[in-house]
Design brief:
Layout: H1 9-15, H2 22-36, E1 40-44, H3 50-57, E2 61-66, H4 69-75, E3 82-85, E4 99-102, H5 115-124, E5 131-137, H6 139-144, E6 149-153, E7 157-165, E8 170-179, E9 185-194, H7 199-208, E10 211-218, E11 230-237
Helix pairs in contact: 2-3, 5-7
The structure holds S-adenosylmethionine (SAM).
């Protein structure tokens, strides 16, 4: 089983085309940036840079950080952003960020025991008073994915994505068939493991590590519901 996003990366943008309203999400983030006077941002677990590119186009000076070189390869067509290969659990930026974001599940890749260290690293790389906006898939969404098989297909590749949720982990087994020039298909496998977190555990970890939680909403600004599948957290780095 291969490292996650190794084989998926070239197909990620197509595969997630309808996953998430990035333009609306960017508006929410840019409103916070405007309110705080943020000029320099970081997109943590930026992947192919879907959010970093939008924020850069809106005038923010961005750094994108990810631990998948393959995902970053697809990000770097935007030369105005600095793309950095780095594990977010050891985040170390060349300059402080006035605003930090982590969009579309990045934090679900962290174990509950890794949250404190992660939030402390983000804190240490931000200017005081700056907003940190991130989202996670909810336990409700993850439970609903248990035993579900998703399927995606085009003329270049076919993806089968099988899910198992144990209550503590969501194990996603991906089988990708990539079409070769001579018409045969190459079979690739990769496994992704995500961890459920609660609003309480995230808020406690954030506030233990130098932030104040300002609001928690469904999917970038909507009211929370028991069936929310994405929670967005808007924290502000403390002044000290
Ligand atoms: C679901 S993708 C989201 C990518 C991007 N934020 C977006 O909105 O399209 C999750 C990303 O998290 C990255 N990731 C997972 N664990 C990471 C870690 N420890 N450090 C940095 N990036 C990580 C993966 O490589 C992947 O690009």
């Amino acid at each position: 089983m291969s490292h996650c996003y190794k084989f998926l990366a070239p197909f990620y943008n197509k595969f997630t085309k309808d996953d998430g309203d990035y333009d609306r999400w960017a508006e929410y983030i840019l409103k916070a940036a405007h309110e705080h006077g943020s000029k320099r941002g970081v997109d943590i677990a930026c992947g192919t840079g879907k959010m970093a590119k939008r924020l850069c186009a809106a005038g923010l000076n961005m750094i994108g950080v990810d631990k998948s070189t393959r995902m970053l390869m697809w990000a770097r067509d935007d030369y105005r952003t600095l793309w950095v290969y780095q594990d977010m659990r050891k985040l170390k930026l060349i300059r402080l960020a006035d605003i930090a974001v982590c969009v579309n599940d990045g934090i679900n890749y962290l174990k509950p025991t890794e949250l404190d260290d992660f939030f402390l690293h983000v804190h240490d790389n931000m200017t005081p008073g700056g907003p940190f906006i991130f989202d996670i898939s909810t336990p409700y969404k993850m439970a609903g994915m248990d035993k579900q098989l998703y399927y995606w297909d085009d003329d270049k590749a076919t993806l089968f994505w099988n899910n198992k949720f144990t209550g503590r982990r969501l194990i996603m087994d991906l089988v990708l068939f990539v079409k070769m020039t001579h018409g045969a298909y190459l079979r690739k496998e990769e496994q992704h493991i995500q961890y459920p977190h609660t609003i309480e555990s995230i808020t406690a970890a954030v506030e233990r590590n130098g932030f104040t939680m300002r609001e928690v909403t469904e999917s970038y600004g909507l009211p929370l519901r028991p069936e929310s599948d994405r929670w967005t957290f808007y924290a502000v780095r403390d002044m000290r």
